[in-house]
Specification:
The N and C termini lie far apart (38 Å). By secondary structure, the protein is mostly helical. 54% of the residues lie in helices and 0% in strands.
Length: 48
């Protein structure tokens, strides 16, 4: 089943993707996931 997004849904997806790429790069998230400090995802800089 093919699901087509509306223009607004595409804009939201693109905005969320851009925000996450700038705020939480995948290499940083993987490093947090893999480190043994136990802080995990709560240690993302700028997270409220």
């Amino acid at each position: 089943m093919v699901m087509l997004l509306t223009d607004e849904q595409n804009m939201l997806r693109d905005a969320a993707r851009g925000f996450l790429q700038a705020s939480a790069p995948i290499d940083q998230l993987r490093r947090l996931r893999d480190e043994a400090s136990g802080t995990g995802m709560t240690a993302i800089p700028g997270r409220r």
